[in-house]
Amino acid sequence: MYEHNILKIVLIVLAFALYIVTVAFNAIAGAGLQRNIFLQSVGNISNKFNTDFTPAGWTFTLIWNVIFAWQFLWFGYILSLICRRSELGWFYLKPDLFPVSFFLVWMLNNVLNIGWLFLWDREYLIPALVFLGAIAFTNYIVLFISYRAVFLNGEWLQKQHKVDLWLIRIFVSGISSLFFGF
Q1: What tens digit of pLDDT does each residue of 6-23 get?
Q2: pTM passes above 0.90
Q3: With 0-12 CB in 10 A as exposed, 13-18 as middle and 19+ as buried, what is 169?
Q4: Residue 1 to residue 15: CA distance in whole angstroms
């Protein structure tokens, strides 16, 4: 009989909750709302420290909306795995396509994102830059963990669950690569 791993389910739910908090903080900071939390909008600070390679404001809005919407879709996929079984057991457990390390590093990435918002808002530019580097690095680690899990289980997925293989490639690898690239 297949048994659930309650700790991993809790970790997935915590990661989703942190995602919601991250999106909320980004929306508040981006719009310049809640002056008791953020002193100014992210865009106003970008305009203040404008460089030749700073993208237009609408680009940030468009890209971040795509990134957060795409992450919402892959969370829907990951949450669906809790309810699905394969020949090996519960799909979120076997094959281990999303190991605990994936969620822990991804959660760290979200905490760094929120931290960056506060550092950028207070115009601590060097620490904000360090946080951006850490965000990029944790994105790289998330991609590595995902690619490794797909590599280790890719043959089985190709034979048994082609749709899931492509959903992982599209949702996880696709959004992480876009986030990493931006």
Answers
A1: 999 999 999 999 999 999
A2: no
A3: middle
A4: 27
Contact 46, 122 (CB under 8 A): no
The string of DSSP letters for 14-83 reads HHHHHHHHHHHHHHHHHHT--TTT-SS-HHHHHHHT--TTPPPHHHHHHHHHHHHHHHHHHHHHHHHHTT
Place of tokens 């969370």: 75
The domains of the chain are located at: 6-46+57-181
Tokens at 81, concatenated: 């795995």
Dump pLDDT digits (tens) for 126-171: 999 999 999 999 999 998 998 898 888 878 777 787 787 777 777 7
